[in-house]
Amino acid sequence: MSGLAVSNSPGGTTAYGCRSQAQWNKLVNDAKSQGFKIIRIIGFDCSALELASSAAATAGLQIMAGIFAQFGTIAASSSQIDNDVQRFRAAYTKYGAGRYVGLTIGNEVQDSVGNIMAKVYSVRGYLKSVGVQTPVSTVHTWVDIRNNPALCGADFVGANAHAFFDGGVNSGQAGSFLYNTVKPALQAACPGKKIYITESGWPSRGGNNRNAVASVPDEHNAISSINCAARDTSMTIFAFEYDDQLWKNGGAIEQSFGIFGKILPGDALNAYPDPTLSKHNNNSISFCTYSYDVDTHGIADVQEAPLPHQQTYQTYQHRVDPTDYTIIPMQSTDGDTHTPVTQTPIRQWMDDEAYEAVPITSGRTAVLPVSYSLHR
């Protein structure tokens, strides 16, 4: 995952407060240490835009800046939004265009689509007139965007998508839910638009939602699943959220999406260690599980991500046997021949080391080494 959504309030407190500069610095450094490159803030209260931008600039991270409609509706919040636009303009001048990947107006605002987008277009037009080139949009739930395509009429799609609230999937399916359910719906509603999943996570407390279980192990599984799926960079995913926010209304579920101090630092972003898969030298290795649709030719392109000692990518083509969906290595683009094998467990060769993979039996799901990412 590229991004991390954060609250302006320190975690673990039952009353809403404000993070200090030192706390923002720690947050950003924590995020960077786990590979996150973008921080998403949802409001400018508590001097959050300035403090987060300062911390991000020092660490070399970027910001997705969000203006919150503090008074509920767009009309009631209009003056506050306008004031925050001026704050953003000043930050843009101070920290540079490259610091900000986007500006969002509202987060799931309970107002008409027309009112929301009228304000988005007004802000975008004003900022362009004064030389600010940051892309502008709004953020809403993926279901609302699917049902109201006008919400993606600005520069990009900003969609909140939590598999937990669907209820039909378990934590290990959170990543495939984003790419097999949410992504096609947003692409159909918003053709050609860049898609940011502005928050996606899993609660650790608060009960179950049918198949979705709220627990620390399930939160770990969900974040791992989302991170594996996010190796497909056709969407940019923001993990939700940095730490637990106990001040929130809605009970334990809403309060327990935090990942740092709970499952991070840790192995949640290292993919799944699968005991049925082993490296031939008996060292442990992690694997990602991907779900995808096999095309009419039974071909899936798999890109090998560079290991720490590598500087280049190599793309391998694998033929998918439609009878059992076993992955059969074929010819790589760098000219090396990877001998097809059809027995199970199959053997996949990479960097002169063999990996064994169990047969694929659960529908169209492929188990690949963590150093591979699926290109849909």
TrEMBL record:
SUPFAM superfamilies: (Trans)glycosidases. PANTHER family: GLUCAN 1,3-BETA-GLUCOSIDASE, GLUCAN ENDO-1,3-BETA-GLUCOSIDASE BTGC. InterPro entries: Beta-glucan_modifiers (IPR050732), GH (IPR017853), Glyco_hydro_17 (IPR000490). Glucanases play a role in cell expansion during growth, in cell-cell fusion during mating, and in spore release during sporulation. This enzyme may be involved in beta-glucan degradation. Active on laminarin and lichenan. It comes from the Eukaryota. Keywords: Carbohydrate metabolism, Cell membrane, Cell wall, Cell wall biogenesis/degradation, Glycoprotein, Hydrolase, Membrane, Polysaccharide degradation, Secreted, Signal. Its EC number is 3.2.1.39. It is a single-pass type II membrane protein. One of its GO terms (cellular component) is fungal-type cell wall. It holds the Pfam family Glyco_hydro_17. GO terms for molecular function: glucan endo-1,3-beta-D-glucosidase activity. It catalyses: Hydrolysis of (1->3)-beta-D-glucosidic linkages in (1->3)-beta-D-glucans. The keyword Transferase does not apply. Signal peptide: none annotated. It is found in: Cell membrane; Secreted, Cell wall. The keyword Secreted applies. This is glucan endo-1,3-beta-D-glucosidase. Gene3D superfamilies: Glycosidases. Belongs to the glycosyl hydrolase 17 family. One of its GO terms (biological process) is polysaccharide catabolic process.
